[in-house]
Amino acid sequence: MEMLIVSSEQQQRLIMIFSDTTTKVSDKEIIRNLDAYPVNSSAYLAFKTAQDLRVERIFFPSGDDKTGSLAGGDFLYRYLSKGYICLGDLVGKPKPDLSPWGVRSVRKLARVGFGL
Protein backbone atom coordinates (compact mmCIF):
# COMPACT_ATOMS: atom_id res chain seq x y z
CA MET A 1 0.00 0.00 0.00
CA GLU A 2 1.18 3.47 -0.81
CA MET A 3 0.06 6.92 0.31
CA LEU A 4 0.83 9.81 -2.00
CA ILE A 5 0.61 13.46 -1.16
CA VAL A 6 0.32 15.73 -4.16
CA SER A 7 0.94 19.28 -3.01
CA SER A 8 1.21 22.85 -4.23
CA GLU A 9 3.43 25.06 -2.10
CA GLN A 10 2.11 28.18 -3.81
CA GLN A 11 -1.53 27.33 -3.02
CA GLN A 12 -0.72 25.67 0.35
CA ARG A 13 -3.05 22.81 -0.66
CA LEU A 14 -2.64 19.05 -0.95
CA ILE A 15 -4.51 15.86 -1.74
CA MET A 16 -3.95 12.36 -0.37
CA ILE A 17 -4.11 9.31 -2.61
CA PHE A 18 -4.08 5.76 -1.24
CA SER A 19 -3.35 3.01 -3.75
CA ASP A 20 -1.82 -0.39 -4.35
CA THR A 21 -1.21 0.34 -8.02
CA THR A 22 0.66 3.66 -8.09
CA THR A 23 4.06 2.25 -7.12
CA LYS A 24 5.00 1.73 -10.77
CA VAL A 25 3.54 5.03 -11.96
CA SER A 26 5.85 8.03 -12.33
CA ASP A 27 5.22 11.28 -10.48
CA LYS A 28 4.68 13.11 -13.78
CA GLU A 29 2.03 10.62 -14.82
CA ILE A 30 0.20 10.95 -11.51
CA ILE A 31 0.12 14.74 -11.89
CA ARG A 32 -0.97 14.44 -15.52
CA ASN A 33 -3.83 12.08 -14.54
CA LEU A 34 -5.25 13.90 -11.51
CA ASP A 35 -8.71 13.64 -13.09
CA ALA A 36 -8.61 9.90 -12.30
CA TYR A 37 -8.70 10.65 -8.56
CA PRO A 38 -12.06 11.97 -7.38
CA VAL A 39 -11.74 14.57 -4.62
CA ASN A 40 -14.83 16.09 -3.04
CA SER A 41 -13.68 19.73 -2.94
CA SER A 42 -14.68 22.93 -4.68
CA ALA A 43 -10.99 23.95 -4.79
CA TYR A 44 -9.84 20.82 -6.65
CA LEU A 45 -10.19 22.30 -10.16
CA ALA A 46 -7.85 25.18 -9.34
CA PHE A 47 -5.46 22.82 -7.55
CA LYS A 48 -5.11 20.54 -10.59
CA THR A 49 -3.93 23.46 -12.73
CA ALA A 50 -1.18 24.60 -10.33
CA GLN A 51 2.23 24.79 -11.98
CA ASP A 52 4.19 23.73 -8.89
CA LEU A 53 2.57 20.36 -8.11
CA ARG A 54 4.87 17.75 -6.61
CA VAL A 55 4.41 14.19 -5.37
CA GLU A 56 5.75 12.59 -2.21
CA ARG A 57 5.25 8.92 -1.38
CA ILE A 58 5.23 6.72 1.68
CA PHE A 59 4.88 2.94 1.67
CA PHE A 60 2.90 1.05 4.30
CA PRO A 61 3.57 -2.52 5.35
CA SER A 62 0.89 -4.90 4.09
CA GLY A 63 -1.72 -5.92 6.64
CA ASP A 64 -0.40 -3.67 9.43
CA ASP A 65 -3.02 -0.91 9.61
CA LYS A 66 -1.79 0.41 12.98
CA THR A 67 1.75 1.09 11.74
CA GLY A 68 0.40 2.44 8.45
CA SER A 69 -2.03 4.72 10.24
CA LEU A 70 0.73 6.21 12.41
CA ALA A 71 3.15 6.59 9.49
CA GLY A 72 0.43 8.20 7.37
CA GLY A 73 -0.48 10.56 10.20
CA ASP A 74 3.16 11.61 10.61
CA PHE A 75 3.47 12.14 6.85
CA LEU A 76 0.27 14.22 6.71
CA TYR A 77 1.04 16.18 9.89
CA ARG A 78 4.29 17.50 8.38
CA TYR A 79 2.19 19.34 5.80
CA LEU A 80 -0.75 20.38 7.96
CA SER A 81 1.57 21.87 10.59
CA LYS A 82 2.97 24.18 7.89
CA GLY A 83 -0.52 25.54 7.19
CA TYR A 84 -1.47 23.36 4.23
CA ILE A 85 -5.15 22.56 3.63
CA CYS A 86 -5.99 19.01 2.56
CA LEU A 87 -8.67 18.96 -0.10
CA GLY A 88 -11.47 16.48 0.49
CA ASP A 89 -12.08 14.49 3.66
CA LEU A 90 -9.84 12.79 6.22
CA VAL A 91 -10.32 9.32 4.81
CA GLY A 92 -8.14 6.56 3.50
CA LYS A 93 -7.07 3.07 4.29
CA PRO A 94 -5.36 3.06 6.66
CA LYS A 95 -6.81 6.34 7.94
CA PRO A 96 -3.98 8.69 8.98
CA ASP A 97 -3.79 8.95 12.78
CA LEU A 98 -2.87 12.46 13.94
CA SER A 99 -3.41 11.83 17.67
CA PRO A 100 0.29 11.22 18.56
CA TRP A 101 0.90 14.86 17.60
CA GLY A 102 -1.87 16.13 19.87
CA VAL A 103 -4.47 16.53 17.12
CA ARG A 104 -7.82 15.33 18.39
CA SER A 105 -9.87 16.83 15.57
CA VAL A 106 -9.23 18.69 12.36
CA ARG A 107 -10.73 22.00 11.31
CA LYS A 108 -13.17 21.34 8.48
CA LEU A 109 -13.68 23.91 5.75
CA ALA A 110 -17.08 23.45 4.11
CA ARG A 111 -16.82 22.01 0.58
CA VAL A 112 -13.03 22.53 0.56
CA GLY A 113 -11.25 20.20 2.96
CA PHE A 114 -9.56 20.29 6.36
CA GLY A 115 -6.55 21.67 8.19
CA LEU A 116 -5.24 22.18 11.70
Overview of the molecule:
This protein has 116 residues and is of the alpha+beta class. The protein has one domain. The protein has helices at 27-32, 44-48, 65-80, and strands at residues 2-8, 13-19, 53-59, 85-87, 107-109, 113-115. The protein has a six-stranded mixed beta sheet. The longest helix has 16 residues, at 65-80. The relative contact order is 0.23.
Give the mean pLDDT. 90
Poorly predicted ranges (pLDDT <50, ≥5 residues)? none
Oligomer state equals: single chain
What strand order characterises the main sheet? 3-1-2-4-6-5
The coarse silhouette is: globular
**Total separate domains:** 1
Largest sheet: 6 strands, mixed
Measured on Cα atoms, how large is the radius of gyration? 13 Å
Fraction in helix: 10-25%
- What's the total helix number? 3
Q: Indicate the proportion of strand residues.
A: 25-35%
Overall structural class, as computed from helix and strand content, comes to alpha+beta
The total beta strand count reads 6
Query: Roughly how many Å apart are the termini?
Result: 26 Å
Give the H and E element order. Answer: EEHHEHEEE
